Amino acid sequence: MSVSLALLLTAGVLIACGVYLVLERTLTRVILGFVLVGNGVNLLFIVAAGPAGKPPFEGSADPGEMTDPLPFAMVLTAIVISLGITAFGMALAYRAWQLFGHDEVPDDVEDRRVLRRRRRRSEDAEKLPWSQALSEESRRGALMHSQGFAPADDDQLGSDLTSAEDVPQDATEADEGQEPPPRPAFRRRARDQGPNRGSDRERVDDRGASRAPGAGPATDADPDLDPDSEHTDERGDA
Amino acid sequence: MSIELLLALPVMLPLGGAAVTLLLRHHARVQLWLTILTLVAILTVALAMGYYVTQEGVLVLQIGNWTPQLGIVLVADRLTALMLVVSSFVTLAVLVYSSAQAVSEQSGRTPLAIYHPTYLALVAGVSMAFLAGDLFNLYVGFEVLLAASYVLLTLGGSASRIRAATMYVIVSLLSSIIFLSAIAAVYAATGTVNLAELAVRLDGLEPGTRMMLELMLLVAFAIKAAIFPLSAWLPDSYPTAPAPVTAVFAGLLTKVGIYAILRLETLLFPASQIQNLLLAAAGLSLFIGILGAVAQTDLKRVLSFTLVSHMGYMLFGIGMSTQLGMGATIYYVAHHITVQSTLFLGAGLIETRGGTTNLIKLGGLAKLAPLIAILFFIPAMNLAGIPPFSGFIGKVGLIEAGIQYNLASGWILIAISVLTSLLTLYAIAKIWNRAFWQEPSEEIVQRDVRIPKVMTGATAAMIGFSLLLTVLAGPIMTYSNEAAASVLERVPYVSSVLGDDAADALVYKISEDGQRVEDR
């Protein structure tokens, strides 16, 4: 089977550009990247169909000379699917922008918690050898847990994210005119203690979000998600 | 009317139901009952299908009477029928459970009108993936269930769910793209996407090409099944969803991936060259997953990590690709769908009663809510593989197959599975100590919530189903061994789709003793 080099090269360039975009942090760019990769893969199907032939209508030509129609049917299906998924991804990016003021792909909360724990350990126990520092930390942790209180700043993000009270309730159209639901206590505390820069930015975000068409009352943005305060120090640590 | 038409129903019924429930979005009760009715109908169809496949072997439906080479075929063998029965029961029980939760909780504020249609679309996608007779239809089935799962995961669009869904959507998109390019490569190499025809044509390919195609498809499926190096997305995204949604995801979505891997390793690429890779991935999943579970302090996260870990058991059976191993795997899949969903439903009950799933804050539930304690205890012991529950039977089956496999890799895997089983028990004991025995905080004692009877009832029904797997372990094990034999043999599948001539062209066939696939 002879293969068109132009098609292959185009597919390669599309996929390479797409992969570059997928590696970005913004959801919008990631989705654009997937659109490009998807188009590149669709071209691969056309490569798989072989060289162009006569149109595949019954009785119009010898079946041996016709183009294989099956890959094109698959490409059409794949295009429709990627259209729907792209629309969903854009909606997701828009919602993230409403809530956080940006649409960056967040770090894994659990990773961040583990990282913070490790950082605290290394701050406290710099002078101890590694093995002792580790056992010291776990001893302290076990003590705290057995006393029934976890350190206040320990689990704000990681462990309680999934509980019902933590998930901020979004006002839907049905509850217009009602008081917004009470916010979890620790969030308020976290915001008071948060860095100034973070809370300034958050206020701006709130305004931006409530101005947005169709936006409900802006839900509180998590100051820990502020890209300025979070990403920089994490990279510095790594 | 021939019985083959039954095969279209598990896909058409939920899709039709989704359309009608979407039209009825202002009538919540009607929506609910219509959804329940649809799911009951699917369960009935699946049971009937299970009966017919034991009578007549493999059922094939050619959609629109196109030939299998050109059109879409739906195929049901014993494996498909078993998966459909289990999945339709689980979806039904979870839906009943969620109907009560929506009323009792603050989640009533989320836009529920789309919940039922999306749920039915998810069911349609799962059924389509199980029934698909060609690779591209499998892809479409995956996409349908993934699109529905995106919506279910972001129900309400709150901050933490958007955060979790972003990760989930990106990872799923990546796996879909890999799958799609794998299909393009398969088509370029063989000129077909029909599974039966692929089975014949892939046998004749060069080993290098064959392995590349296998690896591409394997990566795509392994992301969906959350096999270890590709599993990091799961514990981040599942726990934030509402409890019933997590239950369905944990029970079914990963198993669809495992089902695809099973088909891949038996029908398309028998006598695989990467058996040791599969076994290594299985061992790493088992061990690293369970270490994650031990380290967590959140109930749902612990359960998500045990899910990652226990995917390793199923991959273990598939990796050996002996008849005994496959049989045990098929039994284990049925067991694991049920027990993992039940555990997440139990976690939902705990969350309703205690207000949180943070194990440090929970406590004293054994006294405060003995019913929840029982409803959590049974599936938890079942997961850890305590006799006489079905988890024990499944694990014994796998270990027996490993002993018979009698290679170094098999023995290593046996050691890891036993260790994982112990560590699972440890993780479960940790949950039990913290959530049920720990001194309760004032807040939990004061908290006055009535657990809706429907929720406990649905969880109890799931437990009943998992006990049924124990009581009827003999017949079900026989059934899954037959399923394994037919899957490994390949001839029934190929000959019922393409006819006997095509089946004769198969290169790799099952050996005389019916245990291993080899080159003839």
Short description:
Chain A is mainly α and 238 residues long. Chain A is built from 8 helices and no strands. Chain B has 22 helices and 4 strands.
Characterise the protein shown here.
- The complex is a heterodimer of chains A (238) and B (520).
- Among the domains of chain A are: 5-100, Helix Hairpins, CATH 1.10.287; 107-162, no CATH class.
- Helix content of chain A is 59%, strand content 0%.
- Chain A has helices at 5-22, 27-48, 70-100, 109-124, 130-146, 185-193, 196-211, 227-237.
- In chain A, α1 runs antiparallel to α2.
- In chain B, 75% of the residues lie in helices and 3% in strands.
- Chain B is built from 22 helices and four strands.
- In chain B, β3 and β4 form a beta hairpin.
- Chains A and B meet through α2 and α3 of A and α5 and α6 of B.
In terms of topology, how is this protein built?
The complex is a heterodimer of chains A (238) and B (520).
Chain A: H1 5-22, H2 27-48, H3 70-100, H4 109-124, H5 130-146, H6 185-193, H7 196-211, H8 227-237
Chain B: H1 9-23, H2 28-56, E1 59-62, E2 73-76, H3 78-104, H4 115-131, H5 135-153, H6 159-190, H7 195-203, H8 207-225, H9 234-237, H10 243-268, H11 275-295, H12 299-320, H13 323-354, H14 365-368, H15 370-384, H16 390-405, H17 408-437, H18 442-446, H19 453-471, H20 473-489, H21 491-498, H22 500-504, E3 508-510, E4 517-519
Antiparallel strand pairs in B: 1-2, 3-4
Give the CATH topology of one domain in chain A. Answer: Helix Hairpins
- Report, as a whole number of angstroms, the end-to-end distance of chain B: 40 Å
Q: How many strands in all of chain B?
A: 4
Helix content of chain A: 55-70%
| Rounded average pLDDT of chain B | 87
- Estimated share of beta-strand residues of chain A: under 5%
Helical fraction of chain B: over 70%
Percentage of residues in DSSP E strands of chain B: under 5%
N-to-C order of helices and strands of chain B: HHEEHHHHHHHHHHHHHHHHHHHHEE
The most extensive interface, with participating residues per chain, is: A-B, 60 and 59 residues
Q: Compute the separation of the termini of chain A in Å.
A: 50 Å
